[in-house]
Amino acid sequence: MDKLNHHPASYKDPSGFIFTHQSRVFRAIDASYKKTYDYFMKSGLYERLVNESLLIPHKELRTAKKMGNVKYILEPVKIPFISYPYEWCFSQLKEAALITLTIQKIALEYGMILRDASSFNTQIYRGKPIFIDTLSFGVYEEGRPWSAYKQFCEQFLAPLALIAYADPRLSRLSHLFLNGVPLDLAVKLLPWRKKIRQGPLLHLVFHSSNLRSGSRAGAAKPELFFPKSSMMGLIASLESAIQSITWNPVKTMWSQYNGNNKTISYKQISLEDKKHIVERCIKMCRSKYIWDLGANTGEFSRIAAGLGAFVVSVDSDPSVIEYQYLNNRVGKVSNILPLCIDILNPTPNLGWMNLERESFINRPKPDTILALAIIHHLAIGENIPLSNLAEALSTLTEKLIIEFVPKTDPQVKEMLLFREDIFPSYTQAGFEAAFAKHFSPIFSKRIRATDRWIYVFKKKKAK
């Protein structure tokens, strides 16, 4: 561990940094933060937060003399898949906001405070948000306002209000504005006169007006004494504001995907047969880590999770990801990570030098991909040639469980009803030929009472 490989997202805080070594993740703590870290650990705050599953646990490792100003090396429990707030559904972001405020309240009991309130300080771990930034804690100074108040509003309150009261697609603004949605923009976009409740509005308008008047921090003036009682009142007000924001997802064709939906090709007998086939395929692949692309409400993700796999379950529809996440929470399913990602336009590299936030396809690859009832939407709905799809999928996984939906299927017929059929190669033979360039078929079976087929492919070894 002579050379510390700094993580490209860890460069802003002089108190320490994240680095990796042999696929392990570590946190280095600088001498300038040693006193604060010691207080954090000895105060009992760390132990309480870990015991309440609010903070990711770590273990301390020995440091070498040649590490200079590094006083501690920590190895936190590794998050299996790093995700970002702009990929989360409404409830994931809301719960992350609430644990941030809970941690702030508890920290004050121990004479500490959160120095920042970035949504990137939380991750989804074992099915729910958890705080991951040990260096965010500072010693509380009586009378000082919360410097992270405006940041909390930008990264939590504004995005949640925009999703709930304007349009869920505005969650993408967090992708565009990595440091938080500008509050003057949020206020302009919110139909607050008719729909928004007073709690969120007051916090957002307060900061927005400060921005217009030239205030940067959006907090009280430095000479103004801000007692702990006022700090607790502020946290309670923010908590109430977050709790008051609710979102009822609109019912889409996909959020109602089941055997009784007449717009879907499956009869109940077919759906049950498909479940049995997919379960058999997952067992055949001995899958431990799966991406379920176009996962919808997560029915097949749950089958994979039930077999012990960790599943990253993605769909572009915020409604179905919200449904899936809440359903998993109720069922206490902890090994599925639902994310709102459009596979036609997956999350790119973002941030400083395009290295700070990693693209979806550059994060740890799965051993198996599920691509069920999606091939026709990509090949016919989006004009992506089968050869391109096969090549792309071969760069992402070693094993592929995929469903072929032919032109005889009612859904494909409906897709071609008002457009020219320019897809002569979209046949079962054409599908098999395209994928044979990159994969070897190891299993295939027709779904009962349909013309659809499930295939299992294994990636060919490079020559």
Q: How many domains would you count in the coordinates?
A: 2
Average pLDDT over all residues: 90
Using only C-alpha atoms, the radius of gyration works out to 25 Å
- Give the CATH superfamily of the largest domain: Vaccinia Virus protein VP39
Morphology: globular
Instruction: Give the structural class.
Output: alpha/beta
Helix content: 25-40%
| Main sheet record | 7 strands, mixed
CATH topology of the largest domain: Rossmann fold
Binned strand content: 15-25%
Poorly predicted regions: 215-220, 258-263
Task: Please tally the β strands and state the result.
Answer: 16
How far apart lie the N and C ends?
A: 35 Å
CATH architecture descriptor name of the largest domain: 3-Layer(aba) Sandwich
Strand order of the largest sheet: 12-11-10-13-14-16-15
The helix count comes to 15
> Which class of the largest domain in CATH terms?
Alpha Beta
List keywords for this structure.
463 residues, alpha/beta, Transferase(Phosphotransferase), domain 1, Rossmann fold, 2 domains, 15 helices, 36% helix
Can you summarize this structure?
The longest helix is centred in the N-terminal third of the chain and has 20 residues, at about 90-110. Helices cover about 35% and strands about 15% of the residues.
